[in-house]
Design brief:
This protein is α/β, with parallel strands linked by helices. The chain has two domains: 6-177 and 216-241, 3-Layer(aba) Sandwich (Rossmann fold), CATH 3.40.50; 182-214 and 245-278 and 296-327, UDP-galactose 4-epimerase, domain 1 (Alpha-Beta Complex), CATH 3.90.25. The chain is built from ten helices and 13 strands. The protein has helices spanning 15-26, 81-84, 88-109, 145-165, 189-198, 218-229, 249-260, 284-290, 298-315, 324-327; strands at 6-10, 30-35, 54-58, 71-74, 112-118, 169-174, 177-178, 203-206, 212-214, 216-217, 239-241, 246-248, 266-269. The strands form four sheets. The chain has a seven-stranded parallel sheet, sandwiched between helices. The longest helix is centred in the first third of the chain and has 22 residues, at 88-109. It is globular, with a radius of gyration of 19 Å. Nicotinamide-adenine-dinucleotide (NAD) is lined by residues 10-11, 13-17, 35-40, 60-62, 75-79, 94, 98, 116, 118, 174, 176-177. Its cofactor is NAD(+).
């Protein structure tokens, strides 16, 4: 989006949404942040609330929304299994009804619209790394299906609105992303390991820790969002955005222990249902079409994330209270 524009960000109070709002404000845009604060928080927006070009609306995207805007980033959806499995029907509604409402708005106001899709559309993949041409291997009736199939249906809607109504769509398939303002206790692997290490708890690994993941630092991802949104109208996607460098879960755990100087022990538990063995993006398309690739090495991103959680813990903020030691959910990778 060139020049000064009015940009709607759904899920703007969440981890990625708050970083996106910050970046869009820094680029000189007006930002309307829409969130029902199911997993997001006003705390994520503290630094932005007084900004003259920033507006927050408490709203559930399952309901229609009428606002004027030039572009829409649709991020509203709980992203971690702990949260999206709490109310699976609501997760499907957020993905499907939310997409219909935001696409309807985009159609009415002739706005370009970006969808935060996910690597979960590939399910437990049989191809490594995954290119955008891979159709995926998803269980349609499992505990993760509300999210995986909800996101797949949202992609269908985006491409149908594009074909049927000429809406300009941009679909990003996001792979594991981490950074400051992740939820400290939502079971995502990076935040869980860091908090467990900083609080001296055992670090819980599922399986033998040899399953691999790739981790993208949030600033890199947001740069990818903007490049995709600002790309030629001919590029609708889907475009994989993530870090192709693979680490085993055990390597990540050891790195966190070393960097925090923790005495935590690694403990192993059985793998949960439908947990993918390996996931790594092929980002050739993003490299070629957007000139984009991650630039922040894992160690550097981890250092910034550890500093963030360390500060939260020392202030007793961010939902990490003294009860956290017992209350922390085991990580879902
Ligand atoms: N973080 C990742 O690694 C990752 C990976 C793949 C995809 N994504 C996608 O990116 C988006 C943002 O993820 P995140 O990590 O920032 O998660 P998050 O949970 O921090 O943010 C999601 C935001 O959406 C809001 N929300 C949920 N349901 C809503 C509804 N019905 N109406 C309005 N707001 C609603 C939440 O309150 C929250 O602020 C999600 O769509 C997620 O599926 C994230």
């Amino acid at each position: 989006m060139q020049g000064e524009a009015s940009i709607l960000v759904t899920g703007g109070g969440g981890f990625l949404g708050s970083h996106l709002c910050e970046r869009l404000l820094a680029e000189g845009h007006h930002v309307i942040c829409v969130d029902n604060f199911f997993t997001g928080s006003r705390g994520n927006l503290t630094a932005l609330l007084r900004h003259p070009r920033f507006e927050v609306m408490r709203h559930d995207v399952c309901l229609p929304l009428y606002v004027e805007c030039d572009a829409i980033y649709n991020l509203a959806c709980p992203a971690s299994p702990v949260h999206y499995q709490r109310d699976p029907v609501q997760t499907v509604k957020t993905n499907v009804a939310g997409a219909i409402n935001m696409l309807g708005l985009a159609k009415r106001v002739k706005a370009r619209i970006f969808q935060a899709s996910t690597s979960e559309v590939y399910g437990d993949p049989e191809q490594h790394p995954q290119t955008e041409a891979y159709w995926g291997h998803v269980n349609p009736i499992g505990a993760r299906s509300c999210y995986d199939e909800g996101k797949r249906c949202a992609e269908t809607l985006f491409f149908d609105y594009h074909r049927q109504h000429g809406v300009e769509v941009k679909v990003a398939r996001i792979f594991n992303t981490y950074g400051p303002r992740m939820h400290p206790n939502d079971g995502r692997v990076v935040s869980s390991f860091i908090v467990q290490a900083l609080t001296g708890q055992d670090i819980t690994l599922f399986g033998d820790g040899s399953q691999t993941r790739s981790f993208c630092y949030v600033d890199d991802l947001i740069e990818g969002f903007l490049r995709l949104m600002n790309s030629d109208a001919g590029l609708s996607g889907p475009v994989n955005l993530g870090n192709p460098e693979e680490f085993t879960i055990a390597e990540l755990a050891r790195m966190v222990v070393e960097m925090t100087g923790s005495r935590s022990r690694l403990v192993f538990r059985p793998l949960p249902q439908d947990d993918p063995r390996q996931r790594r993006p092929d980002i050739s398309l993003a490299r070629k079409a957007l000139g984009w690739q991650p630039t922040v090495p894992l160690r550097e991103g981890l250092a910034r994330t550890i500093a963030h959680f360390d500060a939260l813990l020392s202030r007793g903020e961010g939902g990490i209270d003294p009860g956290f030691r017992q209350a922390a959910a085991p990580p879902v990778h």
